Deoxyribose-phosphate aldolase
Amino acid sequence: MTATTSPAAAPETPSPLTDVTRDEASLRRFLHGLPGVDQVGVEQRAAGLATRSIKKEAKRWAIDTAVSMVDLTTLEGADTRGKVRGLAAKAMRPDPERQDCPRVAAVCVYPDLVETAVEALAGSGVRVASVATGFPAGRTSREVKLADTRMAVEAGADEVDMVIDRGAFLEGRYLEVFNEIRAVKEACGSAHLKVILETGELATYDNVRRASWLALLAGGDFIKTSTGKVSPAATLPVTHVMLQAVHDWHERTGELRGVKPAGGIRTTKDAIKYLVAVHEVAGEQWLTPDLFRFGASSLLNDLLLQRRTQVDGHYSGPDYVTVD
């Protein structure tokens, strides 16, 4: 990542926001003082931007950009080292017959498979991400969560995806959630931290905004919608709220932080809608894998098929690409 676009790695809360995290009352006052989200307004804006069309010559750029933003993911109990090696091969060469096809951003696995992914991806430029902190529920002790994180980092993970304690957040124990994110950030060392909000369990857009700001205050390099294990997962309106949060954070602090929608994004058409939202809500500088990711695997299959259509001038069926 470049110095000009990478998310902030330091866990320290920047001035002038330091005082808002000094105690529970201050943090609560700050989070509940954020502007409320107009539910009708954000949903109408998301729907309106979703109807935007892009010129034919821009579609190839959009597809390649989306490919480069994919975190190719396998998070199943039946995952094997062989499956991870196969996923790594696809990450490095998504379309083996097309040398100009970009590689994906990262491969995301469980901590015990990080070492396998690191070996398979060595020298490729594809990053290794690992879920941690008792993913996906996060219902375990902080000691276990930190050990989970350290295990992933010591195995070579470049990025860690943590889950927040949604129960603590929904009960208003904001400082507890803040301190846990800070502790995980410290355990990450030089690895980047993505903070999963599990927005489908937060119930309201106001809660999504508060959780986004809480994660940013605590030092999260990315805020991520969901684990992909809960429905609804990523939605355009929720992603709009999160994109607005990182935009406002940048306006206030000068720091660039990223957003990662995950779960339920399966088609090229869907991906382009999200790219339009990134451009219109956060800004053009977020159109980079350093600041925006897709948590998806099936999405890549459709992107590759549509990419071949753009290049070859006719539709290629699934027999022509590796489909998971």
Remarks:
- The chain has twelve helices and eight strands.
- Confidence is low (pLDDT under 50) at residues 1-6.
